[in-house]
Amino acid sequence: MSVRKRIWTSKGVEKTAWVVDYTDQNGKRRLKTFQRKKEADAWAARTTTEVGDGIHVADRATVTVSEAGDKWLESAINAGLERSTTDQYRQHLKLHIKPFLGERRLNELTVPVIRDWQDRLRNEGRSAKMVRIVTASLGRILSEAQDRGLVVRNAVSEMSRRRKVGARTEDRQTTRLAYGEAIPTQEEIRAIVTAASGRYRPVLITAIFTGLRASELRGLRWSDVELDKAKLHVRQRASLYKAIGAPKSKAGQRTVPLPPVVVNTLREWKVACPKGKLGLVFPNGAGNIEEHGNIVKRGLWPAQIAAGVVRDTGEKDDDGNPILGPRYTGLHSLRHWYASWLINRRADGGLELSAKAVQERLGHASVALTLNTYSHLFPSQDEADALAAAELSLLGNATLT
Fold first, then answer.
1. Residues 49 and 70 in one domain
2. 341-377 tens-digit pLDDT
3. Cα–Cα distance for residue pair 222/279, rounded to 1 Å
4. Distances (CA, A) of 140 to 79, 154, 156, 196
5. Which of 78, 102, 171, 208 has the fewest CB atoms within 10 Å, i.e. is most exposed?
6. Contact 129, 168 (CB under 8 A)
């Protein structure tokens, strides 16, 4: 591998460049040009190691981010991932990755390039959470490309290992789930329970007091509910596209105890529940899988409005009166409340369970996920009282001077 200087004249102007002349691991001669000798020397040193290890990918042998993204999406579909998941991946590519990086070749993606891309996403209004999500997708694209021999470096992985200050700042700025914003208050839940009526009351009551995900509620079977023993088993879920499958993770397969209000509600509902081949607890009128949107728009929203759990939409009706909408737009808010109910002190109306017990009830893949989401809700002991108790235990009534 050699680095040589090249001088030529273009339109009467003398120009200079530095060329790395080398043979790759397949015995093919390659050339790469740089403006500065320092850059050429650094690249030559790194490439010598890559060629020796048999992993070097020449510029002409790689592909664009757009092409690599399409290959990654195709692999995800062929692997049998749920349609909702592959649809999300497709959106990541279409809206957040291809418009900014699509024409770049994979070997052009360095940590500075990705940091600049993240800044552009934020400047155009993407949330910190969305930036993290699509960055993870870009990392998967690069990982897939590495497996295919299309690129050597995965700059996203490099960035994750380095954990730059910017990433830590994003973590600190992540908004915690708050009552009245993402989590209904106890008073609001009480009002919703009282106001809920009709065919969607059973699913709302069950969601509130079991914390099941929307997909788990829609896939719940009567054969998985033991009313006499006051418990249900989560063994399957229904995807957004009405496909029955296993829970999100191994931990998602769990048993959840039922309070009396759920047992009584389900016992009454079982008599009126539409029958179907799937034996679902909360089917549509024909006994098939219910639409997620129906539960939200025909069940959750009307129950909130009837309960007075509302917000001003900023719009006005024909008489000039403000139009009120539901305060919480999705079923996940009820899951958040259930988590808080498990965590809160018994004196405050909660169950005061440990983090591990909360993880198991929610079906989280790890206790770390539970703590990352809800750690701020766990009761903290008053430090002054704790220090005084620890001192008394250690020293008794002895007085130190």
1. no
2. 999 999 888 999 999 999 999 999 999 999 999 998 9
3. 6
4. 14, 9, 9, 43
5. 78
6. no
Same domain, 74 and 48: no
Taking only the tens place, the pLDDT of each residue in 89-98 is 999 999 999 9
Q: How far apart are CA 120 and CA 135, in angstroms?
A: 13
160 and 229: one domain?
A: no
In a domain, 340, yes or no: no
Residue 301: other Cβ atoms inside 10 A? 19
Following DSSP, what letter does each residue of 15-68 receive, concatenated?
Answer: EEEEEEEEE-TTS-EEEEEESSHHHHHHHHHHHHHHHHHT----GGG--BHHHH
Check whether residue 69 and residue 49 sit in a common domain: no
pLDDT tens track for 17-72: 888 887 776 778 877 787 888 888 886 887 787 767 666 676 666 789 999 999 99
* pLDDT per position as a tens digit, 51-63: 676 666 766 667 8
Residue 95 neighbours by CB under 8 Å, 6+ apart: none
Runs of H (alpha helix) within 221-366: 260-272, 292-294, 301-307, 332-343, 355-362
Domain span at residue 287 reads: 186-333
Q: Are the beta carbons of 53 and 15 closer than 8 angstroms?
A: no
Taking a C-beta distance cutoff of 8 angstroms, is the pair 188, 196 a contact?
no
The reply to whether 199 and 307 lie within a common domain is: yes
Q: Which residues pair with 16 in a beta bridge?
A: 7
CATH number of the structural domain spanning residue 83: 1.10.150.130
| 190 and 156 both lie in a single domain | no
Query: What is the rounded end-to-end Cα distance, in angstroms, of the chain?
Result: 76
- The answer to whether position 381 is within a domain reads no
Lowest mean pLDDT among 3-7, 94-98, 273-277: 3-7
Structure tokens at 258: 């039922």
268: Cβ–Cβ under 8 A, 6 or more apart, which residues?
A: 202
CA-wise closest residue to 96 among 122, 134, 132, 68? 134
pTM value? 0.71
